[in-house]
Amino acid sequence: MKREMLRAKVHRVKVTEANLEYEGSLTLDLALMEAGGFVPFERIDVYNVANGARFSTYLIEGERGSGVCCVNGAAAHHAAVGDPVIIASYVSVEDSEIATHKPMIVLVDEKNRVRQVKHTEAAAVRV
């Protein structure tokens, strides 16, 4: 049996542009794509932390080091400049591989530059 598991995500990257007139997709800084092992035209899910919107699209390579995160086409209705979003992709993993599966978690700074890449997450602890 296979399970769908998180492959990689860019956590809380800020939207820099929302372009309704573009044909579709999400343009992302190439440095962020590479940090998470993303490739052009890869299917992604996008989770808008600011308004709760969730949508699927695909990636287009943006200029390296630009910090660009541009939501294009109809999806631009679901994001505004400055909104923090989570960009995620998933992979099918055999049950026998789950114990060794390590997703890539890309954390960014205030300018959408790679701050850290890690392979684990801990649940938030409430006090």
Task: Based on the model shown, name its key terms.
single chain, 127 residues, mainly beta, Barwin-like endoglucanases, nine-stranded mixed β-sheet, 1 helix, 9 strands
What can you tell me about this protein's structure?
- The protein is mostly beta strands and 127 residues long.
- It has one domain (2-118): Beta Barrel (Barwin-like endoglucanases).
- The chain is built from 1 helix and 9 strands.
- It has one helix at residues 30-35, and strands at residues 2-14, 17-19, 26-29, 43-48, 54-62, 69-72, 84-94, 104-108, 114-118.
- The protein has a 9-stranded mixed sheet with strand order 2-6-3-5-4-7-1-8-9.
- A hairpin with a 5-residue loop joins strand 8 and strand 9 (114-118).
- The longest helix has 6 residues, at 30-35.
Question: What's a concise summary of this model?
Answer:
The chain is mainly β.
Q: Which CATH class? A: Mainly Beta
In which order are the strands of the major sheet placed?
A: 2-6-3-5-4-7-1-8-9
Q: What composes the largest sheet?
A: 9 strands, mixed
How confident is the prediction overall: mean pLDDT? 95
What is the element string, with H for helices and E for strands?
EEEHEEEEEE
Structural class by SSE content: mainly beta
* Unreliable parts: none
Please, how many helices? 1
Radius of gyration: 15 Å
- Separation of termini? 38 Å
- Report the count of strand segments: 9
Total number of distinct structural domains: 1
Helix content: under 10%
What is the second-level CATH architecture?
Answer: Beta Barrel
Give the overall shape, derived from the CA principal axes.
Answer: globular
CATH domain topology:
Barwin-like endoglucanases
SS strand fraction: over 45%
